Amino acid sequence: MSDIVIRQTAHAGRITLARPEALNAMTYEMCLQIEAALDRWARDERIALVVLDAEGDKAFCAGGDIAQLYETGMAGDYAFGQRFWADEYRLNAKIFNYPKPVISFLQGFTMGGGVGLGCHGTHRIVGESSRIAMPECGIGLIPDVGGTLILALAPGRVGEYLGTTGYRMGPADALFAGFADHFIPQDAWPGLIAQLEDGASVDIIKHAAQDPDASALADLQPEIERHFAGEGLSDILTTLQTDDSDFAKDTLKLLHRNSPLAMACTVEVLHRLRGPTLSMAKALDHEYRFTYRAMQHGDLLEGIRAAIIDKDRTPKWQYADMRVPAIAVSKMLMPLGKNALTLEDVAMTKTNVGFIGLGNMGAPMAANLAKAGLHVIGYDTAGTTAEGVTQAQSAIEAAQGADIVLSMLPNGAILRDVASTVLPVMKPGALFLDCSTVDVDSARAVAQAARDASVQFVDAPVSGGVGGAAAGTLTFMAGGSAEAFETARPLFDIMGQKAVHCGAPGAGQAAKICNNMILGATMIATCEAFALADKLGLDRQKMFDVVSTSSGYSWSMNAYCPAPGVGPQSPADNDYTPGFAAELMLKDLGLSQQAAEAVDADTPMGARALALYRAFVEEEDGRGKDFSAMLPRFTQRSRTE
């Protein structure tokens, strides 16, 4: 079942979050799908308005799905989170500036990322069950997704109170604080939505609105103004600590649960935003300064650990004594320079992409480019295509007139053949971006042919498998000129989570084969160790618990564990259905040894890994299985076999 239902009626674009069992928490893929739909409908004259709602009674959207942020961050990969936030913030800005009415129905919990989705439209509707909050400080973030804009506009110092405590607003509170526009009883929502779908004016919303009960938050405002008017977190704490009231005691309890660094930065951001220069762009820029640094320098990973991983609710915050130095706040909120948030996106450009090779990897990559708004025309010798991609009848047809030609091909010989076909018809200055994994010599030969044709060239093999291609979380290892790499970067940002410029043409392939030689050898070692542990009577989970946090830590163990039911979800949990097929590992190991022989490099472990995978694929039953299926191979064998 899909996590989100996107459709259109005669007059309305409809987006329904469909993860009620997860409180409709928004995943990265959901974010991209919503943005793509909004982009389409903005240009569609048949669509008069957009309606956002969600399945289930408990939540419109209780936040973002942060488990993957933790997993990637703990592995030292901060780029995924940075990209997630940048793309999510771009969506928040689009909703805020959307040229058509956006009506959101906010039942149950609307928190964190749900605020960014549901509280920036033109008509924000709450009902009896609505509970809206910005609880990010509880996991080491500041209120984001444009939430600081609403907090800065809230009455008096209510924004500081909501942002630092995570106070849950009822419907009347949400109206008072500026997070909602109308209270309408929830049993009236289906009929109201039906009328909007049938072409009714948005004026029917105002006529259906009622007055909710009194706002408890409004009643607290005098106390809030007295205690939250200081210049920083320390001032707020000082006034609360010298007050014996119930409000002060209750508020201190709430603050002591949260990250001191995040709360101090929240107060500082709100103070910076207030005034005549306040804008959504400025709010998102300041939020991104913090979130960009949150995993590496903030408390986010510890906050997620305590809240959803270990669930011990005892985070070990920086500055646990609540004495946050001003310099620490300044460092988290410094401008990011070249890494600064930009709200411009490739989706609205007119870039034409010719995509050659729509196989298991190429098809989802091409589909992601199309979803982002690029015009993609694709060709595959097997006649396959991809969602949103226009089908060409030949490689030449795909390449003619393209700004970028992207290829994903099986081997170097085919790459050379395709290049000889398409380079003569490509326009001067265009980019030939090859994402295949091929031998270094082929990459360099095509690069030279591209130079001769006045075409830019980048070799950028990928890591991440079919799952990463579908999710848009690939890592690209790129070789080529700096100028060509920058031309390719917007596509990397759509299809992947990270792109590394490794050097001159061929350097991307060199990095890929070195990486996969390590991967092949470490996967074999990991499988051997599990097989040994089995025969020693050691429980697999216990082994994982030790190795994954000790010197045996590796990607093969921690992120792609070959033992079913152990560690994060992996192909082992799906009967070794390939995420990265054993025959592809065999191919890459063969390329590594070909390269090693060419430069006279001694690689005995790589050579042995190649021999083992060759036997596994060609002589045993490894073809068509994931490369981690080496584990059952070893468990079934004795030392003498």
UniProtKB/TrEMBL annotation:
Residues 506-631 form the 3-hydroxyisobutyrate dehydrogenase-like NAD-binding domain. Keywords: Branched-chain amino acid catabolism, NAD, Oxidoreductase. GO terms for biological process: L-valine catabolic process. It catalyses: a (3S)-3-hydroxyacyl-CoA + NAD(+) = a 3-oxoacyl-CoA + NADH + H(+); 3-hydroxy-2-methylpropanoate + NAD(+) = 2-methyl-3-oxopropanoate + NADH + H(+). GO terms for molecular function: (3S)-3-hydroxyacyl-CoA dehydrogenase (NAD+) activity; 3-hydroxyisobutyrate dehydrogenase activity; NAD binding; NADP binding. The keyword Coiled coil does not apply. InterPro entries: 3-OH-isobutyrate_DH-rel_CS, 6-PGluconate_DH-like_C_sf, 6PGD_dom2, 6PGDH_NADP-bd, ClpP/crotonase-like_dom_sf, ECH_dom, HIBADH, HIBADH-like_NADP-bd. Its EC number is 1.1.1.31. Residues 352-503 form the 6-phosphogluconate dehydrogenase NADP-binding domain. Residues 13-322 form the Enoyl-CoA hydratase/isomerase domain. Pathway: Amino-acid degradation; L-valine degradation. It holds the Pfam family NAD_binding_2. Belongs to the HIBADH-related family. This is 3-hydroxyisobutyrate dehydrogenase. It comes from Roseobacter denitrificans (strain ATCC 33942 / OCh 114) (Erythrobacter sp. (strain OCh 114)).
